[in-house]
Amino acid sequence: MEGLWPVEVLYSYSEPKEEEEMARCEVCGNDYDKAFEVVMAGERHTFDSFECALHALAPACDHCGCRIVGHGVEADGVLYCCAHCAREAGKSGVSDRA
Fold first, then answer.
1. Where do the DSSP E strands lie in the chain?
2. Are 43 and 53 in contact (CB under 8 A)?
3. Are 94 and 85 in contact (CB under 8 A)?
4. What is the pLDDT along the chain (98 residues), one digit of tens a residue?
5. For strand 23-24 and strand 31-32, is the pairing parallel, antiparallel, or unpaired?
6. Distance between CA atoms of residues 15 and 40, nearest Å
7. What is the DSSP letter of 53?
């Protein structure tokens, strides 16, 4: 995950004016007046929901492919959603709990 942190979430809301264009989510394309921005590794992203932000930015488990929304497990520089997936991928000495 080197180079991805820190993450800055920029959220501000004000009633849009009739002529103003709303922010567009980069994942689903929805125009939304309550969109927010995330700056990650110096790149600015716009989303309409945390679901879309997670879809775009959360790392994927190297074994099952699910998005890692939490601590996950890192073994030999590879990210997994849990110790079970790490073990299934042949890693040893991994645990879900410290």
1. 7-10, 23-24, 31-32, 36-40, 43-47, 73-75, 78-80
2. no
3. no
4. 444 545 566 555 555 555 567 889 999 999 988 899 999 989 999 999 999 999 999 999 999 999 999 889 999 999 999 999 999 999 999 988 65
5. antiparallel
6. 26
7. H
Indicate whether this model's pTM tops 0.85.
no
Tokens of 30: 């929805």
Q: Is the peptide bond before 59 cis (omega within 30 degrees of 0)?
A: no
Give all strands of the β-sheet with 43-47 in edge-to-edge order. 7-10, 36-40, 43-47
What six digits make up the tokens of 62?
């190297």
